[in-house]
Amino acid sequence: MLINIPESWHEVLNGELEKDYFKKLEAFVDNERVHYEVFPPEEDLFSALRLTPYDKVNVLLLGQDPYHDNNQAHGLCFSVRPGIKPPPSLVNMFKELRNDVGFQIPNNGYLVPWAEQGILMLNAVLTVRAHEPNSHKNHGWEKFTDEIIRRVNAKDDQVVFVLWGGYAQKKKALIDTTKHRIIESAHPSPLSARNGFFGSRPFSAINSALREAGKPEINWQLPNL
């Protein structure tokens, strides 16, 4: 696992990778891959870190658990591979984008262009057993990703943290709100989107916060593939 952590993050997280819990986590995931199908594939495990180097992180969007069906997860929260039908939460994100910023809904749910513009698209748990949601929770990933949140919080420049739903909002304790911006609402899941996600206009709020911090706004529009 370690060899897949990109250089810019390796330096930031170096001490973490030597800790006992991380070594146990690594052994757990390796064993799971031997006995079960695990998503995302190993080469995509740290895509979020690879696509958004530490010094380029301007926004942190927090998800919970990777997609657990075939060919969906590729290491970015909410994103699916080209050619894969966008799951319901992402469909609702696209609806809100359309209403918020005039987004034209594309033929795919591949969010890599957002990551390349400085959005760290981090799940709290980075692996899952195929077709078994939350099967890798409480094995150490949360401790590791909490540390990523802490390190992003330690950046000198302002970062926009996007926390959708109760699970993500528990991470507010890790964030210095005197220095950084938090944008929060209900989760875009069909179970909760009508309870405060729809109409919350998070995407224009993110750009407003970036503009105030003197940072480039996100071009939310995704190309058809």
Automatic annotation (TrEMBL):
Catalytic activity: Hydrolyzes single-stranded DNA or mismatched double-stranded DNA and polynucleotides, releasing free uracil
SMART domains membership: UDG, UreE_C
Source organism, top-level taxon: Bacteria
Enzyme class of the recorded protein, top EC level: hydrolase
Location of this chain's protein in the cell: Cytoplasm
Keyword Cell wall biogenesis/degradation listed: no
Active site as annotated: 65 (proton acceptor)
Span of domain Uracil-DNA glycosylase-like: 50-210
This enzyme's EC code(s): 3.2.2.27
Keywords, alphabetical: Cytoplasm, DNA damage, DNA repair, Hydrolase
Protein purpose: Excises uracil residues from the DNA which can arise as a result of misincorporation of dUMP residues by DNA polymerase or due to deamination of cytosine.
NCBIfam families: PRK05254.1-1, PRK05254.1-2, PRK05254.1-4, PRK05254.1-5, ung
Family affiliation: Belongs to the uracil-DNA glycosylase (UDG) superfamily. UNG family.
Entries under PANTHER family matching the protein: URACIL-DNA GLYCOSYLASE
Name recorded for this polypeptide: Uracil-DNA glycosylase
Source organism: Ktedonobacter robiniae
Recorded name of the encoding gene: ung2
